[in-house]
């Protein structure tokens, strides 16, 4: 596992997000909230049926989760306490509000974390897998929005960016000092 600490409140690691013992992990979910591939599938698989059952309840209440929004469930069998599910945008061409929607994912997840008294939260690289959001601008958006939020709200004590692959880890490593 690679770790880098750039700021007292922001940390970068290369690891499996499902293994982290934090207050909340963020799931790069799809609109249905019923699990999928990538980090979404891994979280649902490792967390077990409880997460899916809670997502089904949310769906029946509000009809899923819109792109850029976030909802929260317990973490089931995961070592975290909660899972914040946020739906990132599918990259089309950059002219369809993709950047604003991705920024909303981070802001809405952090807002939900504060509402639930979450102090330690871990984010994956939202939308950079099957949703094809270019990794460099996605990292810029993530770092910018989290840094901005942490400068305004003091509730969250640590944000961990969890990269599963070397490419994202290296991109975040290079960019972090620009934002903190």
Task: Provide keyphrases for this structure.
single chain; 180 residues; alpha/beta; 7-stranded mixed sheet; 5 helices
Describe the protein.
The chain is of the alpha/beta class and 180 residues long. Helix content is 39%, strand content 21%. It has helices at residues 38-47, 49-62, 98-115, 135-152, 166-175; strands at residues 2-7, 10-14, 24-29, 70-74, 82-87, 120-123, 158-163. A seven-stranded mixed β-sheet has the order 1-2-7-6-3-5-4, with helices on both faces. Helix 3 (98-115) packs parallel to helix 4 (135-152) and helix 4 packs across helix 5. The radius of gyration is 15 Å and the shape is globular. The model has no long low-confidence stretch (mean pLDDT 94).
Q: Return Rg in Å.
A: 15 Å
* Overall SS class: alpha/beta
Tell the overall outline.
globular
Beta-strand share of residues:
15-25%
Uncertain residue segments:
none
The helix tally amounts to 5
CATH superfamily: Leucine Aminopeptidase, subunit E, domain 1
Largest sheet: 7 strands, mixed
The whole-number mean of residue pLDDT values reads 94
**CATH level 3 topology:** Leucine Aminopeptidase, subunit E, domain 1
Order of helices and strands: EEEHHEEHEHEH
Proportion of residues in helical segments? 25-40%
Biggest sheet, spatial arrangement of strands: 1-2-7-6-3-5-4
Summarize the structure.
The chain is an alpha/beta fold. The protein contains 5 helices and 7 strands, in the order βββααββαβαβα.
What order do the helices and strands come in, and which of them pair?
Blueprint: E1 2-7, E2 10-14, E3 24-29, H1 38-47, H2 49-62, E4 70-74, E5 82-87, H3 98-115, E6 120-123, H4 135-152, E7 158-163, H5 166-175
Parallel strand pairs: 2-7, 3-5, 3-6, 6-7
Antiparallel strand pairs: 1-2, 4-5
């Amino acid at each position: 596992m690679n770790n880098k600490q750039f700021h007292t409140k922001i940390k970068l690691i290369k690891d499996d997000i499902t293994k982290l013992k934090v207050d909340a992990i963020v799931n790069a979910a799809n609109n249905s909230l019923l699990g999928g591939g990538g980090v979404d599938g891994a979280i649902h698989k490792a967390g077990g049926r409880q997460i899916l059952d809670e997502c089904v309840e949310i769906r029946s209440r509000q009809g899923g989760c819109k792109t850029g929004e976030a909802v929260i469930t317990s973490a089931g069998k995961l070592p975290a306490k909660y899972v914040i599910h946020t739906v990132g945008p599918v990259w089309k061409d950059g002219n369809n509000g993709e950047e604003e929607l991705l920024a909303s994912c981070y802001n809405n997840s952090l807002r939900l974390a504060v509402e639930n008294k979450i102090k330690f939260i871990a984010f994956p690289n939202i939308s950079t897998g099957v949703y094809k959001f270019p990794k460099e601008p996605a990292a810029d958006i993530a770092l910018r929005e989290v840094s901005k939020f942490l400068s305004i709200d003091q509730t969250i004590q640590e944000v961990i960016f969890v990269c599963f692959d070397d490419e994202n880890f290296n991109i975040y490593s290079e960019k972090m000092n620009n934002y903190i």
